[in-house]
Amino acid sequence: MIIKKANPHDHKILTEITKKSKAHWGYSEEQIEIWSQFLTVSKEYVETKSVYNLIVDNKIIGYYSFFHESENTIKLDNLFVLPDFIGKGFGKIVMNDFLVRMKNSDAQKVILNSEPNAEDFYIKFGFIKVGQIETSMKDRYLPIMELNFNEDEFDD
Questions:
Q1: Does the N terminus or the C terminus of the chain have fewer Cβ atoms within 10 A?
Q2: CATH code of domain 2-148
Q3: pLDDT tens column, 28-69
Q4: pTM here?
C-alpha cells in the first residue's frame, strides 16, 4: 500500500471512486447523477489541487485532495475510499497521511464540508462542527467542520 501524488490522467478513476463512495450512503443513481458536476474530478482539478491516491495492489482504491483556502487555512476538499474498503481502516490511513502533510506545512487550520454520514469519522480526528450548508436535497445539510492546529497537536 502506498499513497502518492495523483496524475491528471487519474481523473476518471477518481471520479468513479467519488461517485461509488457517495452512493455507498444510500443515495439513488438519480441523485448521484444530479450531483454529477460536484462529484466529477477533472484533469484540471488534479493539475491545480493537491491530490493524493491510495494504492493497494497496484489499484487506486481511494484518494484525498486539498487546497489553500487562505494563507494558513487548508480546505480538505475530498476524501473518498471505494465502498469495498470502507470500514476497514483505509479512511483512517488516508486521513493520517493528510494530517502528517499538514503538520509539515504552515497550515494552522483545516476546514471541510462533510458528507452528513461521515461527520463522526472527522470528529474522531478532532474536527468540530462549526456550521452547516443547506444542499439541493430537501432537509439535507453538509456539516462545516474545522480542525485547528497548535504545536502540541501531533506529539507522538
A1: C
A2: 3.40.630.30
A3: 999 999 999 999 999 999 999 999 999 999 999 999 999 999
A4: 0.91
